[in-house]
Amino acid sequence: MRLPALLILDVQKGFDDPYWGQRNNPEAEQNISRLLQEWRSRKGTVIFSQHLSLQPKSPLYHRSPKGTEFKDMVYPADGEKIFTKNVNSAFIGTELQSYLDQRQVKSVVITGLSTQHCVSTTTRMSGNFGYLTYLVSDATAAFEAAGQKGERHTAESIHEAELAMLNKEFATIITTDELLNQKAFKSF
Prior knowledge:
Layout: E1 5-9, H1 28-41, E2 46-51, H2 65-68, E3 81-85, H3 96-102, E4 107-113, H4 115-128, E5 132-141, E6 145-146, E7 152-153, H5 155-166, E8 172-174, H6 176-181, H7 183-186
Parallel strand pairs: 1-2, 1-4, 2-3, 4-5, 5-8
Antiparallel strand pairs: 6-7
């Protein structure tokens, strides 16, 4: 069986900016790095997305190179595909779907930042496009958010709610250890 494509969404330095507020899962990048090392050792397909915001106040603003740079721990290697985008889904305005289809990729493993933005949107679209989709819960992170009435929602509650909405509807939610240790992974 073929190894799924590993999608690493928007793991960029701009997400370290206080602009985003409190974040959960400080181990997300370390877990992404573990998965990336495994995919590279197996010569699997690794795909990155890079968010280049059109909003001047965003730390990911396309004219602010420091914020748009990939974090060192999960930096793309030569030959690994990078799709740039300026919306939440890695499928919108990119050639991601045709890239996967041309390579006959049927399943994907999604990681990255942030759970409530690009991870959630890309996961939904991946499931809707018919890819067997795995979302690695501890290889993504969320940020706190304010509700419509100004109430605060913690990063952890946002993360858990997003995962619950995606679970079984759009993706199989799995942890890094479950993915790396499960028998099914060994047979990819």
